[in-house]
Amino acid sequence: MKTRTPEYYRIQMEKTEDLNKINALLRGENHHLKKKLDRYVMKWDDLSKALEEKHKEEIDHLKYQLESSKKENEKAREKTKKDIEEISRLRDVIGEKEDRFNELYEKYEKKISEYEKLIEDMEKKIKDLEDKNKKLLSRITKDFTNSSIPSSECRNRKIISNSRVKSGLSQGGQKGHKGHKRKRYEPDVIIELDVPESVKKDPSSYKDSLITKSRDLVDIKVEVSTLRYISRVYENIHDHSLVYTPFPEGVDNETNYGKGVRALSLLLNSYGNMPIRKTKEVLEYISEDKISLSVGSIASLTKRFSDKCEKEKKQILSSLYLSPYMHHDATYLRNNGKKEYVYVSSNGKDVLYQHFDRRNMESLDQTPVKDYQFTIIHDHDRSYFNYGSSHQKCLAHELRYLEDSIVNEEDHDWNAKMKKLIQLAIHRFKTEALSSSDIMKIEKEYDEILLLGQRQYEKDPPSKYYTDGYNTYKRFKDYKTEILYFLHHPKIPYTNNEAELRLRKVKRKARTVGSFRSSKNLDAYCDFLSVIETGKSHERNIYELIKEKMLKSRISSNAVFVMMNCGFLYDQLFTGCEQ
């Protein structure tokens, strides 16, 4: 057993005293609460009675309200019954109305869809008609300023405005202006005029000033001379054969024409584009009916000239191959009623014309471009890009196409900006030497304009009736190097005008004859033009050139052998023919 110390007992006693104190406090508090509870019980009895009375009054009031509600509910039931009957009737009416409405809705919905389809069709037709109208307007507005149509074929050409005020004076030289004298010629005959009458009458009043005045009268004269060769014939007494001295070369028939007549006839017909019968008439007029070539003889001259041009054609071809650049183009004409083509190749000096049935790769393979190894200048025909080492597109064509786009695409401005840039580049190219930085600026602006064009065509796509403007944009985008090639190579021309001008002669001839009669005649005409145009470019007298080629030609007729001395006849006749 554990031993309890006095300290333990002391602590226990202290705890017991504390518990007694707590117990006394709790007994006092309990007595206080008991009294408080008795007071609450008394108050609760009074409150309970008051609440019972108030509750009874509220119950009586609620019973009264309940009775009133029952009466009102009965009335509401009757009213509800009537309302239900009315709602049922209204539902039937609404059902009928809905059926009618649905019927009308379906009917009008069909009409609306029909009208929407009709409106859509009309919008398409309107858009189609607008595009057709745009296409027709683009055709109407095409002229020599925005297309390849020559100015001579533009019917209603615009009058070019002129700010000059008309003076009312006659054409020609005016007083106070520097005169332009005519060319002076070496005289064949000099005639000295007699002394003036006033000097004869009073010689003492005059003295010789040692000054002379001269006036020249230049005219042409056609001299027709006939040389007749006579060769005596001898008969062999043994075999009765006949012998005579041979006639000179070119005198093979009883009547022959000289080279002067042949050269003049060829100039008038094939170079001056004078019809054969008109050529025959002109020769009769200027020779006072002494020369009367047949139509067949004149027609055969071009072919006879062509037969002697192989050497010149080879020289032209060799010169073209060695040139740093070559102009090339083609034009159509009629041959036996069919549409055929004449190709021209030129380096500015040497010119070669060739005739082909079609304009295709097979024809190009027979032209000088097939084996050419330098720069080809041409239009937008993509076939040319299969030949040569580099290319320069004709900017005269591209500027016309830009102008056409400007006229027919008023909502776009990329075309006007591109035209201005190309014209500025050409102007600066002609007037100053462009540095690398200048060329880079031009190319940068070129690219910016193309981006502008791309945005404009994305916003407003081209119609199916007018795609020329968009095609021009695509060419400028795809062939930038070929369009700006001249900037990097100053010796390369930036237009194909050389070939265009050479082909005009073919077009003039085509208008005169209407249609060639055979491919042989057309080939011969191409050979003739090749030699003549090359000779002109090298400053040769083409009349003398033709005479050289016609020296060994043979033409027979019922006329005489003619030698013509006509110093200025060719110039005068050809000038008149051109006019």
Characterization of this structure:
The protein has 579 residues and is an alpha/beta fold. The chain has a domain at 264-578. It is 56% helix and 7% strand. It has 17 helices and 9 strands. It has helices at residues 6-140, 197-201, 259-271, 276-286, 295-306, 310-322, 361-364, 395-408, 414-431, 436-459, 468-478, 480-483, 485-488, 497-513, 519-537, 542-549, 569-578, and strands at residues 225-226, 234-235, 242-243, 325-335, 338-346, 351-356, 375-378, 390-393, 562-563. It has a 5-stranded mixed β-sheet. A two-stranded antiparallel ribbon has the order 1-9. It has a two-stranded antiparallel ribbon with strand order 2-3. Helix 3 packs across helix 16 (542-549), helix 3 runs parallel beside helix 17 (569-578) and helix 10 packs antiparallel against helix 11 (468-478). The protein starts with 5 loop residues before the first helix and ends with a helix.
